[in-house]
């Protein structure tokens, strides 16, 4: 079971034409197009990890009684491959994604994919689909590793005995259609995303399934995204649908960066932890602590909270301009992107695109 997993390659018969690819890469959007190949690997109680393959991208056939379709054991990761100035392709902290994938697997009683195998799968896919890594502007190749349970049974008294790991890739432009324009967010008091002891800290598919009803409500209120609050009191700010949140208190040399502490019900974002480190390097005071909606509104109105932004792999750093809730709304600063928000954004993307020094050694060649 601990033997290295070796990927068998099956060549694609019909890769996309160069014309189709360049048309897609000119305006990829997010999550709409996929590259020519994918990776698969299987796990069973008897064999452990086996049958790892690099194959042409193709649909997956599942028996209607496959456990994932009924009981939802499904986890995923999200990371990006960036074109570097020297022509190489690198990813941002992929080992952290490999570790979080294992953490998610443990929470969902699924097998842990060895971190080396996770990294190898990225390298395999990127090596054959490297033409799909965009070279222009702030675009990248979004990598989506995921795992589902595949046992054919309706039995629910134990976790499934077999699993399928897959990796697909999708060229990505900006996550929000509006680019770096500030977003308006909706404080969700009716619905909660995750509760203490639940699955909120895992990148578990069900967390996202449970979020759509609130996301629809947010859209009906003219908002771009939902802000999740703690499930018990609906007061402490947790995170957004696919992003963590940061608050800037004060400004200039006095600025402090505050982000909700990891309570077990929000996702420990890799961008989040990187920004905490970058904040420290900039000499800022950084705090991980409880922050309530009352504090947010009161300090935004008094001007003490000067900037708020969301961060994540897909969304990078996105300023929050306005907040709405069932009793009203308020603006952050003058509603425009904040100075520190944009500075951190420039530094982060500078590291990711190989344009700025990488003092922590976060970039990993694929
Ligand atoms: N929170 C949730 C719910 C997410 O899905 C994501 C995206 O992965 C994040 C936060 C940000 O995490 P990361 O910075 O690791 O992409
Ligand atoms: C990511 O940033 O990788 C995410 O997973 C967010 C969203 C696309 C689910």
UniProtKB/TrEMBL annotation:
Feature: compositional bias, Polar residues: 1-15
Alphabetical GO biological process terms: isoleucine biosynthetic process; L-leucine biosynthetic process; L-valine biosynthetic process
Recorded GO MF terms: L-isoleucine-2-oxoglutarate transaminase activity; L-leucine-2-oxoglutarate transaminase activity; L-valine-2-oxoglutarate transaminase activity
UniProt cross-references to InterPro entries, sorted A to Z: Aminotrans_IV, Aminotrans_IV_CS, Aminotransferase-like, B_amino_transII, BCAT-like_C, BCAT-like_N, BCAT_family
Keywords in alphabetical order: Amino-acid biosynthesis, Aminotransferase, Branched-chain amino acid biosynthesis, Pyridoxal phosphate, Transferase
Cofactor: pyridoxal 5'-phosphate
Species of the source: Actinopolyspora mzabensis
Signal peptide positions (record): none
Pathway(s): Amino-acid biosynthesis; L-isoleucine biosynthesis; L-isoleucine from 2-oxobutanoate: step 4/4; Amino-acid biosynthesis; L-leucine biosynthesis; L-leucine from 3-methyl-2-oxobutanoate: step 4/4; Amino-acid biosynthesis; L-valine biosynthesis; L-valine from pyruvate: step 4/4
Region of interest (Disordered), ranges: 1-20
Enzyme category, top tier: transferase
PANTHER family the record matches: BRANCHED-CHAIN-AMINO-ACID AMINOTRANSFERASE (PTHR11825:SF44), SUBGROUP IIII AMINOTRANSFERASE (PTHR11825)
Entry protein name: Branched-chain-amino-acid aminotransferase
Modified residues (N6-(pyridoxal phosphate)lysine): 203
Lineage of source species: Bacteria, Bacillati, Actinomycetota, Actinomycetes, Actinopolysporales
């Amino acid at each position: 079971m601990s033997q290295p997993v070796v990927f068998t390659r099956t060549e694609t018969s019909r890769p996309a034409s160069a014309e189709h690819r360049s048309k897609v890469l000119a305006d990829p959007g997010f999550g709409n197009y996929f590259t020519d190949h994918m990776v698969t690997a299987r796990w069973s109680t008897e064999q452990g990890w086996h049958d790892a393959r690099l194959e042409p991208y193709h649909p997956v056939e599942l028996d209607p009684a496959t456990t994932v379709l009924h009981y939802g054991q499904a986890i995923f990761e999200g990371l990006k491959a960036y074109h570097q100035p020297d022509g190489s392709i690198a990813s941002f902290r992929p080992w952290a994604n490999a570790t979080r994938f294992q953490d998610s697997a443990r929470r969902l009683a699924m097998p842990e994919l060895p971190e080396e195998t996770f990294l190898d799968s990225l390298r395999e896919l990127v090596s054959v689909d490297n033409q799909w890594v965009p070279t222009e502007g702030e675009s990248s190749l979004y990598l989506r590793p995921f795992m589902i349970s595949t046992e054919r049974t309706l039995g629910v008294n134990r976790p499934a005995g077999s699993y399928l790991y897959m990796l697909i890739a999708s060229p990505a432009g900006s996550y929000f259609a509006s680019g770096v324009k500030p977003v308006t967010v909706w404080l969700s008091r009716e619905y909660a995303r995750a509760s203490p002891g639940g699955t909120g800290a895992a990148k578990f598919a069900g967390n996202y399934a449970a979020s759509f009803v609130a996301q629809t409500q947010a859209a009906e209120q003219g908002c771009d995204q939902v802000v999740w609050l703690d499930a018990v009191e609906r007061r402490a700010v947790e995170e957004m649908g696919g992003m963590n949140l940061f608050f800037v208190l004060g400004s200039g040399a006095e600025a402090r960066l505050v982000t909700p502490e990891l309570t077990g019900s929000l996702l420990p974002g890799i961008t989040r932890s990187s920004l905490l480190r970058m904040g420290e390097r900039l000499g800022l005071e950084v705090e991980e602590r409880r922050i309530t909606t009352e504090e947010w509104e009161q300090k935004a109105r008094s001007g003490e909270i000067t900037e708020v932004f969301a961060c994540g792999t897909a969304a990078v750093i996105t300023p929050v301009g306005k907040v709405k809730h069932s009793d009203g709304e308020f603006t952050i600063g003058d509603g425009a992107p904040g100075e520190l928000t944009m500075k951190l954004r420039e530094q982060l993307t500078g590291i990711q695109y190989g344009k700025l020094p990488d003092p922590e050694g976060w970039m990993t060649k694929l």
